[in-house]
Write a structure and sequence with these properties.
This protein has 577 residues and is mainly β. Helix content is 10%, strand content 34%. The protein contains seven helices and 36 strands. The chain has an eight-stranded antiparallel beta sheet with strand order 12-13-14-15-18-19-21-22, with no helix packed on it. A six-stranded mixed beta sheet has the order 1-2-3-4-5-6, with no helix packed on it. A five-stranded mixed beta sheet has the order 28-30-32-35-36, with no helix packed on it. The longest helix has 13 residues.
């Protein structure tokens, strides 16, 4: 294109042409204008001048110095700027650690605060950052905030402390929150105990072994309140305080110290009349471990009451054992069956009491045999079944000569006060029958021994009578049974007190059964047959456990002449029809 001389151009054309000719040039282009042997033109000199800032037009406050100096203006990147402030370590050529400050607050008293990074750099400029920090005067001092490249943050970290691995936030020191704290996950402790407290009083504390919910003090009015219906609703709440200590193990709710005055409430789930059964128990000095009853304090008896599917209403006792925490067996003292019958260990049942009550009013017709002062006479002036003639007294006496018993209160006497005739019998557990008559000063005479009487009675029951004797004998005597059979009914309990020579007891109940022989008699043959395929018959002698008859077996026992109970063995039952 042919150039037009400037003097031939118009004003507007001249301005446009100058803008095209004079422009900022790179350093390399400017150097080309001034190489050896070249003669720079006017326009090239113009390019040189236009490519640099003139001192008259330079404002030092508009630029950051490359080294040193102070900036008095505002550093602004603009609201649409995509640039950033950076520290370039890519050209480092030595392996080293580094600490770099982006900002530092300095006063006349020295460094006050800083913000920067701490890490390492290789000789190729590859950077590893250990942490960045805000606050504190140095990277390795105590910093207000410290963070790692994986966005873990620590508040109050000192020296080389960095945020704990696995936690986004690590607060070193106490935290004070003015509003609610909401958790989307669990509340945990990294070490030590978890404590939730109010004004330095622990309310909730948990460690690897225990969780403790505590009240503010040990006063009776301070406690732990469990309120199922809400914090302000006291209906149906459970309170645990100093006036009512309780704690719970695997099976029991326990009250008080278990080796001093401990009581408990527990549930059992082992079927059977003579086992715990299915029921709730209220006990003193007794617990349940899932199988056995446990006695916490071995120096005391245990007592327990149950409302029970297998045992009904049952009152029980366990004798004191020898070792704290021993397993013990319960003795049932009283039970109430589903039909309302009360059975006791030693004093019969309510059926027997009702029968005795039906005999009529016996008030004043019997004389007590136990007296605190046995030498004193107790006047007896009421009616007797056969009223003696004259005035009579009944007394428990121990003052007579030649007393045949070693303990006081062993003799019962009924005598005319004028004649002093006396009839006397043996005290309990004595084998002898004694008699004395007269004025009470004569010697006692032994009439017979118990064994002798039993032998004579047994001999009499076996005596053979002649045809004439049989024909003249009373009908009642000819029909005296020598064999009897008893059956254990649905109550699963039978008390046997019978002098019959041959006795058979059968049982076939779904639950375990008891046959209690309350009195034994000389030369008896007793057979116990268990027809149940699953339940046991437990034989007791005078309330004490003797032996167990297995399902579908029978047992023979024999009572000797001197009243010894002999077990002749168990045998299988074979049902023929």
């Amino acid at each position: 294109m042919k150039k037009v001389p400037p003097f031939l151009l118009g004003e507007e054309e001249l301005i446009i042409n100058k803008q095209q000719i004079m422009a900022k040039k790179t350093i390399a282009a400017l150097k080309e204008y001034f190489r050896a042997g070249k003669r720079p033109t006017e326009s090239q000199f113009s390019d040189l001048i236009d490519s640099y800032v003139h001192m008259d037009a330079f404002n030092p406050n508009a630029y950051l110095p490359l080294s040193g100096g102070k900036m008095s203006g505002v550093l602004s990147l603009g609201n649409t700027s995509t640039t950033w402030i950076s520290r370039d370590l890519s050209d480092v050529s030595v392996n080293s650690n580094f600490s770099r400050y982006f900002t530092k607050l300095i006063g006349s008293n020295g460094d006050v605060d800083s913000f920067g990074y701490y890490g390492a750099v290789t000789n190729t400029g590859s950077v590893t950052m250990n942490w960045g920090f805000i606050g504190g005067i140095a990277y390795n001092g105590k910093n207000a905030i410290r963070w790692t490249p994986d966005q873990r943050v620590a508040i109050g970290g000192s020296a080389a402390v960095i945020p704990t691995t696995g936690y986004a936030l690590d607060v070193i020191g106490n935290a004070y929150v003015r509003g609610d704290v909401t958790f989307a996950g669990g509340l945990n402790t990294y070490q030590g105990s978890l404590q939730v407290q109010h004004l330095n009083v622990n309310k909730l504390r948990a460690d690897s072994a225990n969780t403790i919910l505590s009240a503010g003090s040990n006063s009776g009015t301070s406690g732990i309140f469990l309120r199922p219906a809400g914090d302000t609703v006291t209906t149906n709440q459970v309170i645990v305080n100093a006036n009512g200590t309780q704690y719970v193990d695997n099976y029991n709710v326990l009250f008080g110290s278990q080796t001093t005055t401990g009581s408990s409430v527990f549930h059992t789930n082992v079927s059977g009349v003579n086992t715990p059964g299915y029921g709730i128990w209220m006990a003193h000095n007794l617990q349940f471990n899932g199988t056995d009853f446990i006695q916490p304090r071995a120096s005391l008896n245990s007592w327990a009451f149950t409302v029970n599917n297998h045992k009904g209403f049952s009152f029980n006792r366990a004798n004191n054992s020898t070792t704290n925490g021993s397993a013990v067996s319960l003795i049932e003292l009283v039970k109430i069956s589903g039909t309302g019958v009360i059975s006791t260990l030693n004093n019969g049942s309510s059926d027997q009491w009702n029968a005795a009550y039906g005999w009529g009013n016996h008030a004043g017709k019997y004389v007590p045999i136990n007296h605190a002062t046995p030498v004193s006479a107790l006047p007896y002036q009421n009616d007797m079944l056969a009223v003696p003639v004259g005035t009579y007294v009944a007394a428990v006496s121990s003052g007579s000569p030649n007393l045949p018993f070693t303990q006081a209160g062993g003799l019962i006497s009924f005598g005319n006060t004028a004649v002093s005739t006396r009839l006397l019998g043996a005290r309990d557990n004595s084998d002898n029958l004694w008699f004395q008559s007269g004025d009470g000063k004569g010697a006692w005479r032994q009439l017979a021994s118990r064994d002798w009487v039993i032998t004579q009675l047994a001999s009499a029951s076996r005596a053979k009578m002649s045809s004439a004797e049989v024909s003249s004998a009373p009908v009642g005597e000819t029909n005296m049974p020598t064999k009897k059979e008893y059956e254990i009914d649905s109550a699963s309990y039978l008390e046997l007190n019978d002098e019959t020579e041959f006795i058979t007891v059968t049982g076939n109940q779904l639950s375990d059964m008891i046959c209690n022989i309350t009195e034994v008699y000389s030369q008896q043959d007793i057979k116990i047959i268990n027809l149940s395929t699953s339940s046991l018959i437990k034989l007791q002698i005078k309330g004490s456990s003797a032996v167990v008859v297995e399902p579908m077996k029978y047992m023979n026992i024999y009572i000797t002449e001197n009243v010894k109970v002999i077990n002749l063995g168990q045998f299988a039952v074979e049902v023929l029809a």
